[in-house]
Design brief:
This protein has 25 helices and 41 strands. It has 943 residues and is of the alpha+beta class. Strands 17, 18, 19, 23, 26, 27, 28, 29, 30, 31, 37, 40 and 41 form a 13-stranded mixed beta sheet that branches. α18 packs antiparallel against α24. The radius of gyration is 31 Å and the shape is globular. The N terminus and C terminus are likely disordered. In the C-terminal section; belongs to the anthranilate synthase component I family. GO terms for molecular function: 4-amino-4-deoxychorismate synthase activity. Pfam families: Anth_synt_I_N, Chorismate_bind, GATase.
């Protein structure tokens, strides 16, 4: 009876991959969320059946064993010449423990191994399928077990990894962080709390010179500094005889600043080229188990098995700030090649069931694993598989053959008093409803260059509004979409596959000529402008939303007419799109009111040059409100509650559930007919920012006034992805001297550096899922940027997008921005949902554009006022790490809310003053008409 392997899925079924070649084609793609899958073996009669389990002999590499063990292993002479070229490409199975750094390892191994690894989650494959791929198909040469949240003592945290470590003695395995702890736990060591949690901080490492550290210096002042992310460790005193310590911290208190390191490192690559003598592993492995220093134990940082090619390191070699991290992976590759070379030419690996008997607690561990497997608990997170090009799955909609026309007016911005006057002139009438303004209001230090603005009116204009269908349905990402066109017609539909899938189909339906926008110095030439709310995380891997947003979960205009301001030289561009299938219809719509749109807007802008520009200025006195700005808002959480929630975060971090948690809350206040455009103008004046934005959606009673300094993600015309996370904030000083002191304080803050580094590594991971191997790099690490009210610590991560992926694939891989979640992202979002009392809504999401030419630019929604149905809300928060002080975190949250709250209170104060004066005039007129002399004020009438 013949056997075949099929892939069972909740959505569709495909033939399983039987060969390494087909496996390789499937894994050369990053991740997006997909339904949970399992592999099922089916015979010709359609019956489910396990795979064959015949295996051959075992060979162990001498190079990874101490001398006394080598004599027990004999092997046939390997014909090295025949296998040399084949072995230079190493095939790795990378097991992802739902971590946010796994794809940093993926990127390193892809370039080092000569082929990208296969990535699976720790609960994605059954043991039978794993066994089939490893021993029947012989698809992999080694295994790397990733970091991850939680503990190896919890079956749902570690999945299949313990069984692999126990039963697969004949394949090289490298465990990182959680994988390192799993190696110790699988063989009987105890997992305990570290003396102190260490996340995103540097330590110097001493090692014993074994093959894994070949060519890497050791000890204090050697230059071997590593990044650590862990709260748990292996108890070194509990190590069984078969596990040998190979690395440990060189001192107890050496969590140094990155200031000195930054000047010496080429980011993303090892820079130290010094080498040390490669002592024989046979001698070095017999050193004392746990070296002491100054009467105190160092922390165990590495172990290896005495008879198996199994290694573990507690630190993170894949971190951007770890020295010699790439060298460690290169050494693991050489260990694998040497092991294969010294094995039999007819190498057949075999699982040894007696491996369970070698562990003192093996019977209890096996019972726990079998019990866990039999009960089949649902995984904590949805299974995430390789990205397939979403454009290939598209059912094509009506084709949109877009044609772009544009004009340029030289140096206009400087002649009309700035982009604010341009917006007020063209789009500020009727309270600027249904308008947008992606506003680079801060262009200092070349942070931003272009602003984009526009409003309702073009023939292709439409508004799309999306709301998720359920606040708690784990499996559903569907929701309701409404589309209003330029004529005011509205149609609604249910999107079973969610909003991002719909938007992807829309973008892929556009057809255009690159010649149309050749010569334009910016990427946005028309398309979708709007926001993605934080709750759309359920379309990007999160299991659920614990709270329902009152605002839409996404809202966009399709923009066919727009104005672009180039702040570098003051040039202004006018752009207009039409559907080339129906050019006459578009033209007639534009000329109904006279001139075509391009000519009409050009005429208005030229008229503006001759106008008194002062009438477009709306100053607001800073003395309008005498009390502290945030006192006018009601905070969702009291001071005591926020402090207690920070303490809960610290407990999660101590227990290894997260490295960093970005805790937030909301402040709210009624608006009382506030002039919303005036509010935005005051906010941009008080707190100018490179990724500021104004969005007005009249039918949703929604207006967004954003002064964000942070870019989430951009894809430019050269297919380069860029993220610019901010972590680390401090207030500006009153005097120049105080301001400089505070800036330097932030620059050298170990806590803020740790916050920033954790998010940098997280975003390297997110970009690594969708970028070409070896292309992800960090051109700027922890630079301090200064804004009107705060100094911030900013990093820049870039990478080259894979050609077969769409813009939406890139967004899906990285949303929500890691600076608003923490790391690991999935576990952190789940924990934050349990702590926060309401949906974040627009806050923590992204505002920006998706251009029809397949580029996009999105910010992180922070420093923002959201006005919805007469209520203004401001979200604020901060990253909680092991070094956080609960009271300080509360004060930092208030600092971040202060600028938008102050801007709001000033404008509302002016609005109330005008209303008060208007009522006074009305009352005076009324009394005068009755022949009564006015006494006092009309305060009683207003009450």
């Amino acid at each position: 009876m013949k056997m075949k392997l099929v892939l069972s899925s909740s959505t569709h079924e495909n033939p399983c991959l039987h060969s390494w070649k087909s496996l390789q084609q499937a894994v050369d793609k990053p991740l997006v969320c997909k339904p949970s899958r399992k592999f099922v073996y089916v015979n010709d009669l359609g019956q489910h059946q396990p795979p064959k389990s015949n295996v051959g002999r075992v060979r162990i590499s001498r190079s990874v064993m101490p001398g006394p063990v080598q004599e027990f292993y004999k092997g046939d002479k390997y014909r090295q010449e025949e296998a040399s070229s084949r072995l230079r490409t190493v095939r790795t199975l990378l097991i992802d423990n739902y971590d946010s750094y796994t794809y940093n390892i993926y990127q390193e191994l892809s370039t080092i191994n000569g082929a990208p690894p296969t990535v699976i989650h720790n609960d994605e494959w059954t043991w039978e399928h794993f066994y089939y791929c490893l021993y029947e198909e012989k698809a992999f040469d080694n295994i790397v077990i990733s970091p991850g949240p939680g503990s190896p003592t919890c079956p749902t945290d570690i999945g299949l990894c313990l069984r692999i470590l126990l039963e697969c003695k004949d394949i090289p395995i490298l465990g990182v962080c959680l994988g390192h702890q799993a190696l110790g736990y699988a063989h009987g060591a105890n997992i305990i709390h570290a003396p102190m949690p260490v996340h995103g901080r540097l330590s110097e490492i001493q090692h014993n010179g074994c093959n894994l550290f070949d060519g890497i210096p050791s000890g204090c002042q050697s230059g071997f500094k590593v990044v650590r992310y862990h709260s748990l460790i292996i108890d070194a005193q509990s190590l069984p005889e078969e596990l040998i310590p190979i690395a440990w911290t060189s001192s107890m208190d050496n969590h140094s600043s990155f200031a000195a390191l930054k000047s010496d490192m080429v980011l993303g690559h090892d820079v130290y080229q010094c080498s040390v003598g490669n002592s024989s592993i046979n001698e070095q492995c017999l050193k004392p188990k746990y070296p002491k220093k100054d009467g105190e134990s160092s922390v165990l940082m590495g172990i290896m098995h005495s008879t198996r090619p199994h290694f573990g390191v507690q630190f993170h070699p894949e971190s951007v700030a770890t020295c010699y991290g790439r060298k460690i992976f290169e050494n693991f590759k050489e260990i694998t090649i040497d092991y294969l070379r010294k094995s039999s030419h007819f190498h057949d690996r075999k699982v040894h069931n007696w491996a369970w008997m070698q562990v003192s607690h093996s019977s209890q561990l096996l019972e726990k694993l079998q019990s866990s497997a039999s009960s089949k608990p649902q995984p904590t997170y949805p299974v995430v598989g390789p990205v397939v090009n979403s454009s290939l799955r598209i059912v094509q909609m009506n084709k949109n053959y877009l044609k772009l026309q544009w004009k340029k007016i030289d140096n206009l911005e400087n002649r009309v008093g700035g982009s604010r006057n341009i917006f007020c002139k063209l789009f500020g009438g009727q309270k600027a409803i249904d308008t947008f303004w992606l506003d680079s209001s801060s262009t200092d230090q070349k942070r931003a260059r272009f602003s984009f603005m526009g409003g309702k009116g073009g023939s292709l204009w439409r508004q799309i509004t999306f709301r998720l269908s359920s606040e708690s349905d784990v499996s559903s990402t569907g929701g309701y979409l409404s589309i209003e066109d330029a004529q005011g017609s509205v149609r609604s539909m249910f999107l079973e596959d969610g909003f991002l899938d719909f938007l992807n189909k829309e973008l892929q339906s556009f057809h255009y000529s690159k010649e149309d926008y050749k010569g334009l110095p910016f990427d946005f030439c028309g398309g979708y402008v709007g926001f993605i709310g934080y709750d759309l995380k359920v379309e990007c891997g999160a299991t659920c939303n614990h709270h329902k947003s009152g605002t839409p979960d996404a809202c966009f205009f399709f923009v066919d007419n727009l104005v672009v301001v180039d702040h570098s030289n003051g040039d202004v561009y006018l752009l207009s799109l039409e559907n080339n299938c129906y050019p006459n219809e578009a033209l007639s719509a534009e000329t109904m009111n006279g001139l075509p749109w391009l000519d009409k807007i050009e005429k208005q802008l030229l008229e503006l040059m001759a106008t008194d520009i002062k009438k477009y200025t709306r100053p607001y006195s800073n003395s309008a409100i005498g009390t502290r700005s945030e006192e006018g808002f009601v905070t969702q959480k009291s001071r005591n509650r926020y402090v207690k929630d920070v303490e809960k975060c610290l407990k999660f971090i101590k227990d290894g559930e997260s490295y960093e948690l970005c805790l937030t809350t909301q402040m709210r206040k009624r608006t009382h007919d506030t002039d919303l455009l005036a509010l935005y103008l005051n906010l941009r004046n008080r707190n100018p920012a490179p990724y500021a934005a104004w969005l007005s959606f009249a039918k949703e009673s929604l207006c967004i006034c954003c002064s964000s300094p942070e870019r989430f993600l951009r894809l430019d015309g050269n297919e380069i992805l860029e993220a610019k996370p901010i972590k680390g904030t401090i207030a500006r000083g009153v005097t120049k001297e105080e301001d400089e002191r505070l800036r330097l304080q932030l620059m050298h803050s170990v806590k803020d550096q740790a916050e920033n580094l954790m998010i940098v590594d997280l975003l390297r991971n997110d970009l690594g899922r969708v970028c070409e191997p070896g292309s992800v790099h960090v051109p700027r690490l922890m630079d301090v940027e200064s804004y009107a009210t705060v100094h911030t610590m900013v990093s820049t991560i870039q990478g080259k997008k894979k050609l077969n992926l769409s813009p939406i694939d890139c967004v899906r891989a990285a949303f929500p921005g890691g600076s608003m979640t923490g790391a690991p992202k999935l576990r952190s979002m789940e924990l934050l949902d349990s702590l926060e009392d309401c949906s974040r809504g627009v806050y923590s999401g992204s505002i920006g554009f998706f251009s029809y030419n397949q580029t996009f630019d999105l910010n992180i929604v922070i420093r923002t006022i959201v006005i919805h149905k007469g209520v203004a809300s401001i979200g604020a928060g901060g990253a909680i790490i092991a070094l956080s002080n609960p009271v300080d975190e509360f004060e930092e949250m208030k600092l971040k809310a202060r600028a938008p709250a102050k801007a709001f209170m000033e404008v509302q104060g002016q609005s109330e003053k005008r209303l008060f004066s208007h009522c006074n005039r009305l009352v005076s007129l009324k009394f005068c008409s009755l022949g009564v002399v006015k006494l006092g004020t009309c305060g009683g009438f207003l009450g």
